[in-house]
Design goal:
It holds the Pfam family His_Phos_1. The protein has about 190 residues and is α/β, with parallel strands linked by helices. Helices cover about 35% and strands about 20% of the residues. The protein is globular, with a radius of gyration of 16 Å.
Length: about 190
């Protein structure tokens, strides 16, 4: 079984380097147009999923058209709580932000989530997807993708950074991840 994990199209949040996850902001029209133009570069599958957030729904539609799909809210991006829709520049001098960045892999955001909480819900949400034999595509988020890849293949978050419209195709055998390639393939 091949599972394709794709990050949604670029948003105003990613363009401005904001912390956003729970904010249900749209993808930028120009990014959606670019992904539509490159739709043939992406693998297809028998099953399609999104996190249910607007930017993932829009991205799925421009790449794959009006395909039937399932929304898996467990694959939504991290809730950055008090840091939502704010930049490093806005937060850098606040004590709460300084406390969080001492260990972003474990500390929760004030009134938000921690990376381990996001990973637990992501692994629970993806478990039934990878147990089925048919190939699947999940249009989700960069942080969720990095967390899943770290859990499956080791390494650090930045080993699995993906730009908007990029991701990984993971090969599973008997429900276990065995290999991966970057999507779309390097030109």
């Amino acid at each position: 079984m091949k599972l394709t994990l794709l990050r949604h199209a670029q948003t105003e949040g990613s363009l401005r380097n904001l912390y956003y996850g729970a904010a249900d902001i749209p993808a930028l029209p120009e990014s959606l147009s670019e992904l539509h133009r490159r739709a043939g570069d992406y693998p297809t599958a028998q099953r399609y999923y999104t996190s249910g957030m607007l930017r993932t729904e829009q991205t799925l539609a421009v790449i794959y058209g009006n395909v039937p799909h399932t929304r898996l809210p467990g694959l939504r991006e991290m809730d950055f709580g008090d840091f939502e829709m704010k930049s490093y520049k806005e937060l850098k001098d606040t004590p709460a932000y300084q406390a969080w960045i001492t260990d972003v892999e474990h500390n929760p955001c004030p009134h938000g989530e921690s990376a381990p909480q996001v990973l637990r819900r992501s692994l629970a949400a993806i478990a039934p997807v990878v147990q089925r034999p048919e190939d699947a595509v999940c249009v989700i988020h960069g942080g969720v993708t990095a967390g899943l890849m770290m859990a499956w293949f080791g390494g650090g978050r930045y080993d699995y950074s993906v730009s908007p419209g990029q991701g990984f195709q993971v090969t599973f055998r008997e429900g276990q991840p065995v290999s991966y390639t970057r999507i779309p393939a390097a030109e």
